[in-house]
Amino acid sequence: xxxxxxxxxxxxxxxxxxxxxxxxxxxxxxxxxxxxxxxxxxxxxxxxxxxxxxxxxxxxxxxxxxxxxxxxxxxxxxxxxxxxxxxxxxxxxxxxxxxxxxxxxxxxxxxxxxxxxxxxxxxxxxxxxxxxxxxxxxxxxxxxxxxxxxxxxxxxxxxxxxxxxxxxxxxxxxxxxxxxxxxxxxxxxxxxxxxxxxxxxxxxxxxxxxxxxxxxxxxxxxxxxxxxxxxxxxxxxxxxxxxxxxxxxxxxxxxxxxxxxxxxxxxxxxxxxxxxxxxxxxxxxxxxxxxxxxxxxxxxxxxxxxxxxxxxxxxxxxxxxxxxxxxxxxxxxxxxxxxxxxxxxxxxxxxxxxxxxxxxxxxxxxxxxxxxx
Length: 373
Known about the structure:
The chain contains 15 helices and 13 strands. By secondary structure, the protein is an alpha/beta fold. The chain has a seven-stranded mixed β-sheet, with helices on both faces. Helix 6 (152-161) links the parallel strand 6 (146-149) and strand 7.
């Protein structure tokens, strides 16, 4: 008899973020195994995995709802109510996005906890999100039988903040799609891009430290900016007025692409002279891996999980020090020999991560739990 698994896939109903990509890639690979009957919860129950590029009308509606806090709270309550009314009994319920829905009926619960920015960096999140986490996270996470997290850094935080047995906390690294994020020989791209540019990707919001990035770039002398433009990609998050103001003030040197598809993202990585990711705090940091797999030198923060992901293949900067970001940019871009070394190391490092490997480790946990059903 097949193991009945329910995946909370609500994250696939919005513009794709790291958690959405993680949910989709792991689910897609789990479906390849005959041992499982995989179901999905989108606010309704379905046996179909929605590709992130589909369901655009629903995503537009969800984005409208997300801007209305009262409406969002009402919709959340309706989703919980529908899950309680229509939920079948599942063997395993996997919540890839922190907070298990306590109305889902399942014999075993696995929850993925990615970081603790909602506690450590409340200023990086909308007030409504913080209120939701404070109300439900600690209460509901106690119902989980196992916790999965993306780095040893995050595991240590879980140990410090949750009264959860260490033997039930599992580090499983995220992966990358090597068929997509790779070096392209014939590069045809729909974006209009500068010849040489520094690239950064991430939602336009405080946690990604785009303000520090923009200030560091602005501090470069004109001859440097003439040679290397700055290109940004990512959907508009929140609290981004100051960031967008700086972007719009220097359109000659700064190009904002908005949200772009995965294939376009991979191609922009390929075209970039350097990838810069000075994020304050990450539970993993997928863009670092993606850019390395595309043969792009990487500078990223020396904080949180990022050194664990980048290892010795990247150059690190202090995200709180604009001068350090500035100096590291000049250090790498002025040294072609160093860039070649970083590209070689980055490609080798990226090969160690795959979604197939990550999914297999998730499956091992699901199968181990199934023995006690």
